[in-house]
Structures are given as C-alpha cells and as structure tokens.
Fold each of these.
Amino acid sequence: MTSDADFIRGLPKAELHLHIEGSLEPEQMFEFARRNRITLPFASVEAVRAAYAFSNLQDFLDIYYQGAGVLMTEQDFHDLAMAYFRRVAGDGARHVELFFDPQTHTDRGLPFSVAADGLLSGMAEAARTLGVTSKLILCFLRHLDEDAAFVTLRAAAPYLDRIAAVGLDSSEIGHPPSKFAKIYAAARDRGLKLVAHAGEEGPPAYVWEALDVLRVDRIDHGNRALEDPALVRRLAAEGMTLTVCPLSNLKLCVVDDLTLHPLKAMLQLGLHATINSDDPAYFGGYLAQNWVSTAGALGLTREDLATLARNSFTGSFLTPQEIAPHLAAIEAYVAA
Ligand code: HPA
Ligand code: ZN
C-alpha cells in the first residue's frame, strides 16, 4: 500500500480556504520589497520566520498586514498567485477558491484594479498551464465598518462577473457577522455567493448569525460550532460545508495539539468538513501538508480522506456538471 503522504498527494482535491496574501513566503517578501524599493523591518528571511510565533489570531494579523505592504503592482499579485498555484498543483489540487483582501491594498493607496487584475491574470495562467481552475472571493475586513465594505463593493462593480463570492475575515471577536447584514444582502442581490469566517475564535452565536443573518453558503473554520449541539444538528441537516484549517488552528492556538483537533469529530457528526491551508506561508504548510499532518495526528482512514476529497468539490462553487468529473476521478483513484 502507498504511504498516506503519497496517497494524499495523488488524491484529486480542491482548496476552499486560502488567503492569497497569506501565501507570501519570506523570500518573496524580500524580492517584492527589493523591486518596489521598500525597506522591511527585518534583517533576513530567518528573522521574518522567527517572528512567526503567534498566540492568537490578532498576533498573526498584525504581521500579515505588514507583510502585504510589499505588494505594489499587478505583476506582484500575478507572481504571488502563480507561486501559490505551482505549489498547490504539486499537492494534487485541481481547483481553488481563493480569498483576497482588497481593503488591505486600497487603504494603502492602490486602486482596486491592481490586486484584482493581477490575481485574475495569475488564475487564468494557472488554468492554462497547470490545469488548476479557480474562483476569486472578495473578503471584507470585519475590523472596519460596513460603510467601508460598501465602498469596496462599489469599487468591485466592474469585476463582479469574475468574482464568485464575498467573504468576511480579520479580527473575529467583537465583530459579529450581524455587523455586515446589509452588505451581505447587497452582495446576494448582485448574485454573489456568500461565505464568512465564523467560530474560529468567536462563539457559536457568530456561526448562527452567519447562517441566519448573512445566509452564507459556507462557513469558514466553524470549529466552535461543536460547543452547541443544536448548531451541529442544523449544520449537518443543511449539509453546510465547513472549510477547516488544521495547521492554522495549531499556529493560532485554536487547538493546543493537532491530536486534539475536532476534524475527525466533525466527520463523525456528519458535518461536511474540508481541509485547507488558510495562510500557508505563515502556518507551516500548504494543502497536502495540512492533510498529511492531520491524517497522522487523528488517524484518518482512507475512507475519511476520500470523504474529505469529495467534500472539497461538493462544497465548491463549481456547477454540478463541473463537479461530476472530479468526483469520478476520486472514485477511480480510490479504487485503483
Ligand atoms: N482568520 C481571520 N482572518 C484572516 C485569516 C484567518 O485565519 N487569515 C487571513 N485573514
Ligand atoms: Zn481564513
């Protein structure tokens, strides 16, 4: 029998929770800083990596927003996306639904188009040259107010035919989903799909709000939903996809040890969980590493792994016609 790592790499899979700014490797940070004539507050790549010790989400966000400051041109965003796609193609990903944080860039004075055009051209090149398809998700920063989200949605107007969904990220506690009720209604009116980070650090009540107030199509993270049995029943009954990020949870101290991660329990409760990398340059592993580490820590079976692979496509925003061949490829792979 092949090793778990080989089995996982070959298994057709999708990534549904990836912040493209979180794929910025320290080496690339220095390269972009050099070509954009930006001085970094770090002496070396090693010094950057040494700073990646986080005790919670906010610790990480502070350094993540600082890192994103080296991204200045369409070419930077294109190159960032292609570097990520090359890695994830090697991990056996066939499809990716990636987040970007336009407000992080427009608040630094970049036009909305710089990040959007650079990422979209990288996505087109990845489909052409690597066979990895993708969809773009515009995230609103929840530490900012809803008016700022409306400014961003207006700036995105010329791009809405190439944006699949809106999401909600950044500091969760103190910024409940209900703060964004109107912008989510507006996004829904424009035909966009809806996702939101909820239950990463925030309480089960935030997951309820994401469902009932925002009316999301997917929950990003969702770990703390397990504290509320009625919520678990609701998520299972609706077949709601959870985009779970095990190595992120470990690095941000959402779990104390990977052996204590709730992913296996989620599957046993009938929840449609998936495995994702979140911000792989900061959290110590891309997609396949998340799968391999989690499988090892939790003793996931081949059947669990196949279920996770199926969930990654059925939870995507691909059409049923687009999903069917991926599911067939999983069955063929598992049978072989
Ligand atoms: N949580 C919230 N906001 C984020 C994250 C995350 O894991 N990554 C990038 N922005
Ligand atoms: Zn995230």
Amino acid sequence: MTMMSVEVPPEVRPFLDDASASIVIGATKTAAAEGGEIPTTDPATGTLLANIAAGGKADVDRAVDAARKAFAQWRRLSPAARGRVLLDVADAIDEHAEELAILETLDNGKPLTESTYLDVSLSAQIWRYFGGWTTKLGGQTLPVSPAVGEALVYTQREPLGVVGAIVPWNFPLMIASWKLAPALAAGNTAVLKPSEFTSLSALRLTEVALEAGLPAGVLNVVTGLGSDAGQALIDHPGVAKISFTGSTETGRRIVTASAGSLKKLTLELGGKSANIVFPDADIEAAAQGALNGIFLNQGQVCCAGSRLFVHRDIHDEVVAAIQAEAETIRLGHGLDEETQMGPLISARQLERVEGFVGAGIRDGAALVCGGRQPAGALAGGHFLEPTVFTDVRDEMSIATDEIFGPVLSVLKFDDEHEAVRRANASAYGLAAGVWTNDLKRAHRVARELEAGTVWVNMYNMIDPAAPFGGYKSSGYGRDLGEESLLGYTQTKSVWIGLD
Ligand code: NDP
C-alpha cells in the first residue's frame, strides 16, 4: 500500500513546533496546568502535526479570571475604539490568510480552496461586519405612562460578562469567529474552547488578534477535551453565557449543566436538512445545488442538504446528473490543488458514517455510488467516496439521523403538500432548500418549511448579516446578524423621574 506523504509548508512549521504551549491566558501562551498533551493529526495521512495542551479545570479557572479582569476595561472602551480593534483583527486575518488556510486544511482535511475562499475569507468578513456594529448598538426611549408624575425611560444594551465559546471541528476558524466577533463587539470578553481535533487555526487567530491590538485577556483560549476543558467552562460560575455549536447530545448536556447557574445559552446543533427539487426547477442547477449541499466539507456541515426530495417526474434525470458528477469528484489531500474532497475528520467519524452506509444497505435503499473507502495512496487517511442512495424511505436511519458525512439520501415525492409535510417530519429544523422557477411556489414553500434558513435556487450560502440557527432540536438563539449581537447583550431600562 502506498501512503500519501505531504510536506508541511514552511510558513506554518514554527507555529506547529510551538503548539504544545497552546493555552492562551491574557496574552501569554502556556502549557496545561497538569501538563497533559493531545496529539493532533492530519486526517488525510494520519501524520502527527502537533501536540496541543490538554487543558482542564485549573486552566479554565485562570482563563475566566483573566477574562473577568479584562472585561472591566474592555466594556468601557468607546464603541469606536472597540470597533477599530475588531476591524484591525479582520485586516490581520486577511494579511495572514494563506497561513490560516493552510493550517485549517492540514488540521481539518478540507480542500485549500474551501479554507481560503470560505473559512478564512468569511472569518475576516465576520470580524469586519461586527466591528461596524459597535457604534450602532443603541437602545430606545419609551413612551411610558406612569400613574404619578412624569418619567423619561430609555433602554441600553449592556454586555453580559465572560462568554464561553465551545466550537466544533467542521469550520473551526469560521465558527469561532461567529461567536467571538459579536460577543466582543458587544463589550464581552471570552474564553474559547476549540475542538480537540482542530485547535490550530483558533490558536493562530488568537495570536494574530493580539498582535493586531486586541487587549490581553479579552480573548483567552483553553484547548483540551470537551469532557475536561469544555465541561469546566460550562460549570464555571463566572461565565455568563455559553455559545455552543456541535451535536444535539452535547447541547442537551449543556442545557442540563447550566440549569443551576441559569447561564444564557446559544445552541447551534445538528440538522437533517431537506433540499426539495420541484419539476419546474432548472434541473442542472438543482443537481449542482444538491452536490454542493451534501459534499461541501465532506458533508460535515450542520446544514448539509442530506435529504434530497425529488419530484417523481424528474427523479431519474436528477439522480443521473448527480451520479455522473459524484463519480468524478477527486479525493485527496487538501493541499493538493486537484483535490475536490478531503478526508473525514477522524477514524471515529469515518466509522460512524460507514455505520450509516451499512444501515442504509440493510434497510433496502439502493446504493447508486460510493460507500467505500478508496484504496491505494489514500488508504492511510479517513476518506470515504461520495455516496448516493436512492429508494430511501422516510423511516430509514439514513433519512432521519444526522450522518455528518458525504452521504446523500434521495427520496421521491408526488406533490408540493406531501414534500413540505415530509420535509417537516424531522426532529431537526436547521435549514432547507427549494428548487423551483415558480415564484409563488418558492414563497409558499419557504413560508411553510420549519427551518431557520431556507435557500431558494441556491444552497449553503452564509453571510455575516444573515442570522443562522435552528428550529426544533437544531437549537436556539442565532449566530450572525444583528440577532446574534443582541444575544450577547442584556437590556437595562433606566427610569428618570421628571417631577
Ligand atoms: P460534540 O458536540 O461532542 O463536539 C462539539 C464541541 O463540544 C467540541 O469542542 C467538543 O470538544 C465539545 N464538547 C464535547 N463534550 C463536551 C462536554 N461534555 N462539555 C463541553 N463541551 C463538550 O461533537 P463530536 O465532535 O463528538 O461529533 C459527534 C457528532 O456531532 C457528529 O458526528 C455530528 O453528527 C455532530 N456534530 C455537529 C456539528 C454541527 O455543526 N451541528 C459539529 C460537530 C459535530 P472535543 O472535540 O474536545 O470533544
């Protein structure tokens, strides 16, 4: 068997050599208090990239202390000055774009074009967008009618305090930016717990942000296991809010753990999003949209369009177009510019996804393509061929469960009402797609779908201005947009007696 070997680009070597001191408290990088380390590997080759610090409760305590101290000054900085810092961080991300994209690709496996044009580029845009908000975050004056005398009542938006951000491995830099930029814009300080699988880009972001002028203690990072560092952050009484993206199971654990302290929560959890193709759609565009909807980032996307509902009249045509393209997707190392799809994040994730493929076959779905690990040079990584199932029934696990891998389940439908009903018959409600050229149908179906985002004739579009989050078991609260910013504030009503 030939194993793929990839040279680590020299621009990231010094950072990787230094990664074991990966906890950032104030402006200081340090090892874990108890000295443990976690190996972080390239998922395409299994090669060790670095050992990161295995932080725990003592490290979280120190990080929260630093964040609380910094909060006193950061919240009082003028909105313009705070905004200026965020804009400088945005510029610094752009200046370090190449290095950040390489780190993201090495650590997560995604193709470098995706890291560059999606993860890193959007991260910079997010910091810039929220940098612009600091000077617009105002309150209201309210027309009150007191029983006695007169009063002027106004509201102001105040920060919460220390925000704990717990982020997953699928878009490490971008989702960290989703949480940190609005939290900091509103005057909070933060402790970030990246995924044990992908801590590198978040650490480099923090260094870059400090160099760009972010004051010490405003952003602290504790790397480590979810069950240690993550749990300590959730349990810490000095943390005012947890903003989490990850599995619904961990989300539930956070809700339970925060019941005592009544911490505020934003939870962006799993999904099983329906992508619906009507017979009046542009078939070629819909097939492309379906492919992008499921194979972007190896399908490890919370809003992946993993249930493709196709009208019976166009079903075979759409499936043929998807199959033809899926079979040509080039798997490989993300740093290879020919690569269109990288590996899954870990052996555990690959095993989980393969378990769903096996269940689909056993349940009687038809495997149209993929479903196997590629042999040869890719055998050392966690690769899975792009996989498409047809003849999927609603009750099969490949139609109900979040697979989080490159596995598309195609389901046939006969009419609009049925498509909407079946699309909504899911515990999740993160996103949905609609492909139609009928304007009335587009708006009608968008209105009826139970999902936090509906894309019509497009899929997987994200913008800093557009709120993103779920209905039902996909979570609550929103990332991005004004709504996410408000989620990092609390409202104070001030009454002034005028008599
Ligand atoms: P998790 O939900 O466990 O991981 C997300 C984040 O939560 C990570 O930083 C993780 O840390 C942390 N975490 C884990 N346990 C705790 C805890 N007890 N307290 C605090 N933080 C914790 O997802 P997994 O990585 O285990 O992936 C499992 C499945 O979850 C996937 O197959 C997929 O279906 C789904 N998922 C969904 C995502 C989404 O965007 N909706 C993102 C990631 C996963 P650490 O990594 O160190 O354990």
Amino acid sequence: MTRPRKICMAANWKMNQSIHKLESYAKDLENFSKPSLSKITEKLHVVLGVPAPFLEKAESIFRPKKISISAQNVHWEESGAFTGETSLNMLNEIGIQMTILGHSERRTLFHETNNEIRLKFEKALSKNITPILCVGEKIEERQTGKTFAVLEEQLSSCLSQEKLDGKNFLIAYEPVWAIGTGLTATRDEAHEAHKFIREYLEKKISKTVAEETRILYGGSMKQDVTRELLRSTEIDGGLIGGASLEPETFASMLNIAYELSP
Ligand code: PEP
C-alpha cells in the first residue's frame, strides 16, 4: 500500500507528566521502539506536545532524536499585558517549531472562539511555526447530523488565506465525544470525516494543498485501534492523548505506524 503522505504520530501530554521524567521517557521510548527509534523517525514524523515549562528542556533532549517538540497553545499577540500567555516569538527563541491549536479542551474549557483560533493560526504561520489545527464535532452535533457543518465552520474560519501551503500545517480531526472517553471513532467514521476535510481543502483552497496536508485522527487512539485506523490512507497519523503518557504504549503505536509506512 503506498501512502501519499508521511505518517505523523503526535503526542498530546496536556497538563500531565513531570519535567524530571523527560530523560527517562526518552530512554524508555528508545528501549521499546522497534526496530529502533532512529529507524522510526526516518520514516515517521514523531511529535511530542508538552506543557509550556517543559518546552526548552524537551527540545534539547528530543531534537537530537529527530522528534519535534510542540507547544499546546499560543497567543497571537507579539507581547504585552496578556498574563499567563505565551507568544510565538517566545517559542521561536527556544527553537520550538510546532503548536497544537484549537484543541477541544481549549474551545470548551477556555471558551476559545473560531476567530481567536484563526488569529493564532495565521500568526503561527507567519512566524514559521507549524500549527496542528484541531477540529471536531460534539456528540449532540453528530447525533443531529451536523458533523460536516461543524467541521466546515471550524475549517472555513481558519483556512481563509489564499497562500496556504499544505506542508506548513496539519489538521487533527478529533471528535469531541472520543477525546479522553475511551470511545474511538470507527475507521469508517474517521475515514468519512477525513475525506470530507480533504475535499473541503480541494474545493476551497487547492488540489495541491488537499494532497499535501496531513490529517491526523485524535480521540482515544490506543494500540489496539492504531493499525485499523492507519489502514485508511486518508488517516495520516494520530494525535494521541492518554495513550502517549506511557512511553511503552506510545512506542508500540509508533512501531505499528512504522510497519504501515512504505
Ligand atoms: C487529545 O488530547 O487530543 C486526545 C485525543 O486525547 P485522548 O487520546 O486521551 O482521547
């Protein structure tokens, strides 16, 4: 099976882990990776989305292993009176090249709007930081047949730039009802949503952008469903929360993704 895009396996640690365990996580990831972490990172794009205070140390430990470190959120302003926020310049200063944006926990718990996410997305691109833009429907939206309308609204509010380059951003389809709940979307459900997103990119931006953009699946992705989900070549990898906290489990998911990579 030829895959059109390089698989990306991105961990989202959320507000978990300890900075003092970064070295042992790295060591365990090496130990459990088959055939080896270096072979895996040649074929896969591996990303760790870590809490802000870990970013610089994580970058120094994982960059030599060819693993990208990602922030989990960012503010669009350059600097100023925004207590508790992190600017893109600050990420640039410590060599961070990626950030998750618009995660459903940010949308729900911190009331982030599509417009704010658009400002963050556009600013991230302008600062050469690759956003992983999260989109996804709530259970009541799925049950009332609104999944595609919700996805379209979330996408259209962010992806309005004409000069988008599919290599400079990723999308994570994360059905909200699957995040942290143990419920995973079936391959068919995920495939259908990913296909919708890709068709949207083709229609509204360009065929090239649609072909290049990696669309990850997120929502209780664990070892047992990794192979099944990645069998769809519409699914270019995963954004993995809970299952990424244990290096052994995350490594076993990387091993599967490696096997499925050409
Ligand atoms: C996430 O945090 O983006 C996520 C998908 O979490 P989990 O894998 O725990 O559902």
Amino acid sequence: MPEQEFDVTPFDVEGAVNYDSLVDKFGTEEIDEELKNRFFEIAGDENLYVKRDFVYSHRGLDNALDEYEEGEGFFLYTGIGPSGKMHIGHIISFYFTRWIQEKFDVNIYIQVTDDEKYWDRDITDEEIDKYAEDNIREIAAVGFDPDKTFIFRNREYMGNMYDGIVKIAEKINNSQAQSVFGFEGSTSIGMNFWPAIQNIPTFFEEKRCVIPAAIDQDPYWRIQRDIAGKFGHKKTAAIHSKFIPALTGPEGKMSSSKPKTAIMLDDSPEQVEEKVKKQAFSGGGDTLEEHKEEGADLSVDTSFQWLRSLLLEDDEELNRIAEQYSSGEMMTGEIKEILIEELNRFLEAHQERKENVDQKVEKMMYEGYLAREMWEKNIDLELKR
Ligand code: TYM
C-alpha cells in the first residue's frame, strides 16, 4: 500500500485514515454544525465526542430526530465481537450509546457476536465464552438502564431471530457480500451469511433503528438500507465515530490483537503509566532544542488527540495545553503525565462499576422489562414487494 493510502473494512484498518475522504468513499454525511446543534438542543445537553468531532458522520440521523420530535421515537442498536478483552476504543461507543439512551430515554439492543468471531478468527469455544462473559460485564459497567437494554448472545438468542434472518439472507447475494466485504475463496462460508445476522436487530422494532458505532461497521448498514423497504421497514440510521488512534501513532487503529496499540479496560494504573510513557506516539521535536523551537505537531500526537477527543471536558484547559505544547513550552513528558492521570481516573471509575454488575447483567440478558419481552418474541419479516 503506497504511503498516504488507507483501507477501512469491518475487519481491519490500515494506514492513516483520511476521515473526510472516507465520508465520500462510503457515501455518508458529515455531522455539520446545524445538525450538531439540533442534536444537542433536543438532547438538552452537549456531548463531548460529538462536540470535538470524534463522532463525526451519519446516515439518517436527521430523520431519526424528526421522528423523535413527532413522538414516534427511535431505538438504539450496537454490538461487540467477543474475540478478546476490550480496550478503551471499544468502550467509547458504548458510553456514547448510553448518553443517547439517557437523554432520549430509548431502548437499546446489544448483539454479542459469538458466531461471527468463531468464523472469522482462529479461536476456541472456550475462549469465546470467556471473552463474551467478560465483555458483557464491561458493557454492563457502562451503566445502561437495565429495563430498557437487551444484551444477547447470538448463539443463545438465535431461535427467536432465525425466521427474520432467513428472510434477510434471501435478499443478499454473493456478489454483494464479496464486493462490500471483500470476502474471498478462503473466507469461511459462515461469514457469507454473517451480514444477515448483523442486520437482524435493525428490525427488532417498527421504529427507526439508530446505530452508534465506529465507521468501520458502515458497510453492513448500506445493505440494510437497500433492503429495509422490501419488508416495509425504515432504513436504519447510523452515527459514526472515528477510531481511537493506536497508542503507537496515527496509523491503523487501537486493536486488542496488537497489544502495544491499546489501553485495555482492566489495565492497572502502573500498566497505563508504563504503556503511555513507553509507547504513546509523540508529535514533539526529536531533540529538546528542536522541540523548543518548533513545538509539537498536535495532529499526530497520541496524548493530545486522546485528551481532546475523549477525556478532557474542560475547553479552557484543553486550549491551554494546545497552546503551550504546540509552541514548545510544554514537553512531551508533561502532556503524557496529564494523559496518564485522565486515563486512570476514567479506568478506575469504570473498573469499580464492573465489580458490581452481576444483577444488572442478569436483568439486561434475561430478567429486565425489555429482556423478558424479547425472549417472548419471534422476530420475523414479511415481504411487502
Ligand atoms: P468489534 O468487536 O470489532 O468492535 C466493537 C465496537 O467498537 C468499535 N471499535 C472502535 N471504536 C473506536 N476506536 C477503535 N479503535 C475501535 N475499535 C473498534 C467498533 O466500530 C464497534 O462499534 N461485528 C461487530 C460486532 C457488532 C456490532 C453490531 C458493532 C454486531 N452488531 C452493531 C456495532 C454495531 C464487531 O466485531 O465489532
């Protein structure tokens, strides 16, 4: 791959992503100032990730907001592939999803893909089980409303969804699956069927589905938007985030399969400190003199980018850091200390909540209001034309 090129698929991200051109390539829309303000106004609050353009693109968010204002509402859907422990990149989209649930008081469905990852990775059933249980506890720690949230593992809930999946699968052919996802001769045939399964939750309610996720998942939603009308359903809406860049720099994304790139949700304060000090990519000058003279390049500096997009709410403090660091007054060591402190504050609160999630997990999977309703449902679809 020549320099400056990048590739984004639901399975991998390579190169330094140019997010503006990705919007053109995928055919999505940027969240402009007008939509941002409308979103915040209806929510009655601002959201950091949207405000700082970490969440930056969408399909049909304006339609979902119209329908919300008209009283019809919408529902949320997102998911996780249990192929490893979760890192902060994974959990941010869940925190964003919780924010929407809180502000709009809507149902959320969370798909745990213990089938997809078995097909797509070299992984045993025992590993999948271990990670699924752990990932579900991480997600429960985010603090969703247990009566309005349904977390399900595909292999367990499949009986309730299978009729609908059969109908969706009939509408997707091999050429679509190959051209959208790049499946090849060596790809497991399970993956050919997979887009039907990732799309079924968008049909769980009559209302419009809204999916908060990183933009890598968008190819699935393109297929859904092509076929939804055939079943008399609304096209799903999606709100796309960028990727949290790898700790090691702006190429690729944070990924649990590349440990150097990631801060894991169960990292201890000491591990965070060591990783940030050793691995966090610096936009600062190579030598002290050079740094003092030229300052830091904020656009590639992991510490600055993470603080800006995810962690530091205080605009004034962020501006102070930007000014001092880009002018060379602040050193890389100093901004790393700030990042370590903020990361550890975030992780400590998350880990503490994770200690006490057993009851919530039970409710979100089986016993809460929405979960009980879902276990009684058979999800089927009827062809309208
Ligand atoms: P998975 O497990 O690869 O990723 C789970 C969620 O985390 C997002 N993500 C990231 N976001 C920001 N920065 C990163 N570095 C980063 N890495 C991953 C992903 O976009 C995703 O939102 N097939 C899916 C599971 C799934 C799903 C869904 C995801 C099933 N239904 C509906 C989103 C919405 C998967 O393997 O995700």
